[in-house]
Amino acid sequence: MSGISVQGLWKAYPSAEDRDEVLVALEDVSLEVGEREFVCVLGPSGCGKSTLLRIAAGLEKPSLGTVETQSRPSVVFQEHGVFPWLTVAENVAYPLRLRRVPRAARRERVAELLELVGLTEFAGYYPSQISGGMRQRTSVARALADDGNVLLMDEPFGALDEQTRVALQQELLRIWEQTEKSVLFITHSVDEALTLADRVVVMSHRPGRIIAEVEIPFGRPRDIIELRRDPRYGEITYQLWNLLEGDTAAAEAVAQ
Amino acid sequence: MSEITRAVPVARPKPIQAVPLRHPWRNLLAFALIFLLLAFIIDAAQREAYDWPAFALYLFDVRVIQAAGVTLALTFLAMIGAVVVGIVLAVMRETDNPVLRAIAWGVIWFFRGTPVYVQLVFWGLLSSIYQTINLGLPFMEPWLVLETADVIPLFWIAVLGLALNEAAYMAEIVRAGLLSIDPGQTEAASALGMGWWLTMRKVVIPQAMRVIIPPTGNEVISMLKTTSLVTAVPFSWDLYTRTRDISAATLNPIPLLLVASVWYLFFTSIMMIGQSRLEKHFSRGQLGHGATPKRRRRQDRADRAPVVLASPETVAAPSGAGAPEGAGMSDVAGMTEGDAR
Ligand SMILES: Nc1ncnc2c1ncn2[C@@H]1O[C@H](COP(=O)(O)OP(=O)(O)OP(=O)(O)O)[C@@H](O)[C@H]1O
Ligand SMILES: [Mg+2]
Fold it and tell me: Is the ipTM of this complex over 0.85?
């Protein structure tokens, strides 16, 4: 059984302008995330990436089609969704509390995760007291604490500076390599997609359709910085850019 | 390799010379006000009309204390009713059912649009408008006929009248609370696998409370004072009406008015303290929005800090400005019961 299976997914929203019109956000999207596979969805803003993730998370109903996940997914939202009345540490501890993890174990795990995302010093801060990037990291730590087999991430490192982003990408890969997670990772960054993924799913501008799937040949474990010296890195970057720009011919020329 | 140019050392900031501002006119005004206040107190203490011995006599009169109890009972029962009906109205206004929405809108419109005194008179006349309460199926011979005046005592009519009027205001308060919750929060909760009721209990209600509690506290205080209108029902065992009745017999209304005022002030003061505690409790994690004075003071200290932090060592030390003290890992367990900061 695969981690996530999306079959013939359509999603339409009522148009805000015209009562009789609908806005098609997703058009016949099918994709498969294998067990322990890391798949990135790459696409321009507004192409329906978040919509796809929200449907996969069971927060929205598809207009047509089906989504199956191996287990309840852990989600990192684009707008982080941290609880403002809980401190950073309490936010991360929340999924553990829900699972009734004993206090000592909980404390240990939270400390570990905070260390991981570099928020140890801010354990006692409330979300309103930390930066947007720190909130995102809190949200990532919380999703990791949730510890499902399926991880859905919606541009989790979008608000971070380059350096922190690379550090967290590296950590995410490390965690993922150690665990059994199937990951669907959403991004609009070509770099991020090819750095992290086993396979990149490229989506077109609205209505969101899948226009290509690109296998990323880099082995595991990956060193994100070293990866950039690999000659294939430039090739794949070029290919993905062309796909995004809709120039399939140029992209295929590279693939030869 | 590109070259790195040398960083220029930053000059130390000069310590700020603070000279306190002088406010001669403000001081003069303060003295004048203190003088006037003292003059008023000394005069009032001697004035016959206040009749302080009578005031002392009646302040703890059994009838007065009982009446104070009745006023409290009216306040809390009416508020409980108002909250319950208010929640129902708020939920009705947010449903998809247009009939329910229209009814809720109409009820709120009516009760907010007429004076509470007039409403209380109306409720008092209930037993003459509907002289009997008929139990049974509509358009059939009733099984049981009750005299309205017998089965609904005036006390409960007063509670009913106060509660329904207040419910219209509570509905708006509750509605504002429900609408204040970011849908992202409930989604995050459901993504964590929390069910509807658990999400309500742990996410929606506590957060809505933060918005609902402070104005509700005001409403309780206002309700306490509004109970003095129940004489319109006419119900005459509340604090104000009772003291007025006592003074009608003794012909000295002023000391009894003072007695009533002191009792009202006593209750409202306690309520205000309680309310500010509650507000603090519910403003947790809301620095910058509902910043408490203590937090603001700490913020001020942090704002001044750069003046002090002239040497690099002190800059490097984490200042922890604005961090809730002791809210580290040890707090995780007590996160729901954690107290106000
Ligand atoms: N609840 C909604 N009601 C109406 N339209 C919606 C709703 N949610 C999303 N849409 C529309 O669906 C389209 C896709 O939105 P979505 O949030 O999935 O984009 P995205 O790919 O995540 O973009 P970004 O990279 O900017 O986050 C947009 O045109 C948006 O207007
Ligand atoms: Mg999005």
Answer: no
**CATH number of the domain encompassing residue B215:** 1.10.3720.10
Asked if residue B252 belongs to a domain, the reply is: no
How many domains does chain B divide into? 1
A198 and A138 in one domain? no
Question: Is the residue at A44 inside a domain?
Answer: yes
Position A155 in a domain: no
Quote the CA–CA distance of B167 and B164 in Å, as a whole number.
5
Would A159 be classed as within a structural domain?
A: no
Give the CA radius of gyration of chain B.
Answer: 29
Find the domain containing B120 and state its range.
65-242
Give the closest-approach CA distance of B326 to chain A in angstroms.
8
Q: Are residues A16 and A93 in the same domain?
A: no
Give the residue from chain A lying closest to B194, CA to CA: A98
Nearest CA to ligand 1 atom 25: A45
B329 vs B8: which has the higher pLDDT: B8
Q: Is the CB of A46 under 6 A from ligand 1?
A: yes
Same domain? A183 vs A247: yes
For B67-89, give the DSSP string.
HHHHHHHHHHHHHHHHHHHHHHH
List, as ranges, residues 21-60 from A with C-beta within 8 Å of B.
Answer: 54, 57-59
**Closest alpha carbon to B331 in A110, A167, A209:** A110
Task: Extract the tokens encoding B3.
Answer: 């070259």
Domain count, chain A: 2
Give first-to-last CA distance, chain A, whole Å: 32
Task: Indicate which residue's Cα is closest to atom 5 of ligand 1.
Answer: A13
Range of the domain at A48: 2-73+165-255
In this structure, the answer to whether residues A131 and A235 fall within a common structural domain is no
The runs of H, that is alpha helices, within chain B are 24-46, 52-59, 62-94, 98-113, 116-124, 126-129, 148-151, 154-179, 183-191, 196-199, 205-226, 239-250, 253-282, 293-308, 312-316
Q: Assess if residue B28 is contained within a domain.
A: no
Q: A86 to chain B nearest CA, in Å?
A: 7
Residue-level pLDDT at B7: 67
Query: Is A17 near ligand 1, meaning CB less than 6 Å away?
Result: no
Pocket test for ligand 1, best of A6, A11, A51, A190 (most atoms within 8 A of CB): A51
CATH number at residue A198: 3.40.50.300
Q: Which of A147, A173, A190 is the last residue of a domain?
A: A147
Residue A203 counted as domain residue: yes
Q: Å from A156 to nearest chain B CA?
A: 14
Question: In this structure, how many other beta carbons lie within 10 angstroms of the beta carbon of residue B232?
Answer: 19
pLDDT band at B340 (very low <50, low <70, confident <90, very high): very low
Give the span between the Cα atoms of B191 and A156, in whole angstroms: 15
- Contact, A119 vs A141, CB < 8 A? yes
- Quick: pLDDT tens for B40-94: 999 988 888 888 898 999 999 999 999 999 999 999 999 999 999 999 999 898 8
A129 and A195 housed in the same domain: no
For residues A209 and A142, state if they share a domain.
no
pLDDT score of B166: 95
Q: Which of B203, B287, B328 sits opposite A128 (nearest CB)?
A: B287
Element (H or E) spanning B145, and its range? strand B144-147
- Domain-located, residue B143: yes
Distance A77 CA to ligand 2 centre (A): 9
The pLDDT confidence band at residue B252, using thresholds 50, 70 and 90, is confident
**pLDDT tens for residues A167-214?**
888 888 888 888 878 899 999 889 899 899 989 999 888 788 888 888
